[in-house]
Amino acid sequence: xxxxxxxxxxxxxxxxxxxxxxxxxxxxxxxxxxxxxxxxxxxxxxxxxxxxxxxxxxxxxxxxxxxxxxxxxxxxxxxxxxxxxxxxxxxxxxxxxxxxxxxxxxxxxxxxxxxxxxxxxxxxxxxxxxxxxxxxxxxxxxxxxxxxxxxxxxxxxxxxxxxxxxxxxxxxxxxxxxxxxxxxxxxxxxxxxxxxxxxxxxxxxxxxxxxxxxxxxxxxxxxxxxxxxxxxxxxxxxxxxxxxxxxxxxxxxxxxxxxxxxxxxxxxxxxxxxxxxxxxxxxxxxxxxxxxxxxxxxxxxxxxxxxxxxxxxxxxxxxxxxxxxxxxxxxxxxxxxxxxxxxxxxx
Length: 347
Ligand SMILES: [Zn+2]
Known about the structure:
The chain is of the alpha+beta class. Helix content is 42%, strand content 18%.
């Protein structure tokens, strides 16, 4: 750099030219600030020039002062001009959309997925709706009457022992529903027969938990009330249900089963969809125990104010949790409601 303090006017002019060149080369505000500090700061070139006035011969002091002021003004002017140019360039670049590529795919928000229980539940609801059923919902806290009494399970009925019930403290008559069957009672109370309904949801039992038992599990309940209903109707509906779930026809068989709210009651088994000769899922029997069902008990009809000689019906209860486990080959029921994202992210 030439020495502006030398008193040589041409040297001062070349100092300004140098400053202008530096300023013109600045690409952003930070670089401009640095040049401003270099020339106009407290330790800057102009300050040094002014400080040197006292060392000059008296006849040259005025000239040095004038050159210092000229340099200061020149640098200030150049800084302002460049600052304006940079701001204009920035706005122009934004208007041109530089740095924005409209052909790039947009950033995708993270997406969750439906719980496997919800998926199966919705599929079955769609299936039953296509067969003319209404999809109902019922409360998870039920009255003792709806959960037991109206389903032909009186207070001293031994079947209550198999329902390890959570009672709501202090209420005297409220329970966490132990099955979805109370929705049948609500449907009968509110809807006029003939009717076809399904209801899916959570049920609760005070079980010690293991791979196939949990205190909370999911069921789907179905009820049909009409005239002249027979076991053949029941089997037909169940075969359609199985075709919807496994996407092919499966052989079924009925075994006698006891449930207080149906008569006769059955356990429905289906041919194992996973094997030809026995596997772990069917415990080498080639049959899978799938759902309890039966014709609606006359006492249940009477409790709903219907004449059993005129009306009949069938009901079934499907273990949704078990179905989801079968479909996805899940070996432990507790995974379903365990809330472990590593498990849930697979669906
Ligand atoms: Zn099998």
